[in-house]
Amino acid sequence: MRDAGLTREAERILASAAALFGSQRMPQFRAEAELQLANSQLLHDPPRAARTASAAERRFTTLESTVWATRAAAVRMQAELAGGGVQRGGGRRPDPKYVPSGDDVEKTAATLVRAGLTSDAAALRLSLAIWRARHAQVPSSGTTRVPRSAPIRVQLLAHEARVARALARGQQAQARRAAAAGLDLLANWCESFGSLDLQTSVAMHGSDLVFAGLASAVESGKPTLVFEWSERARQLSQQVVPLRPPPDPGLAAELAELRMLRADDPNWATSTRGIALQESVRARQWTQTAAGSVRRRLSLDELADELDGHTALVSYVYSGDALVCLVVTRDFRRIVPLPEAADARALLPGLRADLDMVATVRTGPLAQVVLRSLEARLADLSALLLDAPLRYAGDRRVVVTAPGMLAGIPWGMLPGMRRRAFTLAPSATRWADVRRGASSLRTAGFAVGPRVMRGREEVQTAASAWSTPTVLERDAASVDAVTSLAAHVDVLHIAAHGQHATDNALFSGLELADGTLFGYDIDRIPDVPAVVVLSACEGGRSSVRWGEEAIGMARIWLSAGARCVVATPVVVADDDACELLGALHGELTAGSDPAEALAAASTRTGLVTPFQVHGAGF
Q1: What is the rounded CA–CA span in Å between residue 367 and residue 389?
Q2: Of the four listed, 56, 390, 441, 472, which is most buried by Cβ atoms within 10 Å?
Q3: Is the pTM value of this prediction over 0.85?
């Protein structure tokens, strides 16, 4: 789980094991669990890793387990070199400036080699080499030999060391080549993963290489390089096309039990049975979802050929230090700096609160106060993120790609994007691939979950636009019935209460007659609809995983093969959803693309809502 990037789950298990071994007075096993925990924390929290490894080192030393103590010391030193130093002697306070000496590192590495732990020794030496390069202490020669059998993490460290040395010498092109080689290695390793869960998690191993490449590309000022690295970053967890898994009665049974558990127990996710079921469901997806073909990334010239005269790409690129926007049309490309990106990020927490209030407080004096606050915040965000890029995009419809740091923005509500057709694409390559295979929409299915105030009215209005719609209501709108319907229609519209699961987005869900339709249930649908409309609060919300990767219900449907998903990242008023989405279907049956249809419906109704199109909306 840790090597697959699922560190939080792995660390919960390891911490529980360490505590259990401690309570049973089994210090050797406790220290081994702590060492593995420190190895995991090293990936994202070096100060914590240093403390955990130091505790394990002391226990091993007391037990006279010399080799184990050396392994723990090596992890501690790696954490200290990564900025998690702990000053020894006069206390245990974290001191990021403290790093072990080169002699201490080499002595520890040599001991590991004599014990046959060559990969551990290589990881430690590489960590020192990276620290030295980043602190202008680059040796004139010498490299660390990495065994062919070394884990992927160690092999990637070797590429990070090459990148750091190249950057220290001012060799930007060489740094990008080294970073690209490391990411290609990671991509080859990922080719066996069909599971969306695994694909989005393993991206964590390449995050340092991705940001190094992005920063170098942005510094170059060349649109071709910025686009190449933007697509490389976005495609890291999308380049492997998963095959649809075979029917699995065991998965269906476990999901059904989870639905019952969720209905009966508000703490279902953390209960003993709930945890066991979630882990089993996840394991089934890992082993049963096979990898298929590998997508080839588009070049900037190839993308430009895909853009007609009415379409522009607006690609936001975050390098770790700066946010820029690449604007591309058929015959124009420009990098637009966004120096006030930090101000934009600071607006996002308050934005969500304002959106929630506006959706729930519809009348009275407070409604106008909240609305004014929301409008001011949206105007500020639009000025910071959209004004400059849209000056170059003109009045064209827009393909937007954005990093995880901008997840949750209701783009269609920003003044600069209102009434404009736009689609939020996972990547420019994915948008181009999917739109090429788009076909006309002929059939539609609808489902209404329980306790949706105007859900039945919304669905009946929307269904009236189609000649032979299928509508599931009340007890007929069960999970099995809806997933069966999804396999036989071009458009699926679900009006239901939704909930986003922050810790594991694939357990996000939609409340239907007999319980929750989970993200994992989508894998049970052999052929998903081309267009999915989620009239559910938080249906378009996503959680940011490693490497700025965002995942939520919309992304799950897209990964399963949907062309696009209409959804909202926040709470939306029932009245607005009912009126807007009813108008949307009238535009769809008239032949409009989904993004064009949503923009037209918004114009016709006069409603400004957080609904937006994900994927290839045109």
Answers
A1: 32
A2: 56
A3: yes
